[in-house]
Amino acid sequence: MGRFPVARNTGRGRGRSSSNRRSNNENNKREYKFYPLGIGNNKATFDQVKDKIENDIQQTFGKGSRKIVESLRNMKEYDWKVGVPTLKVSVNTDDAEKNRLNRQYELDYTEESREYKKKIEQYKADMEKAYAKIWDKYTSEPMK
Question: What is the pLDDT of residue 85?
Answer without folding.
Answer: 93
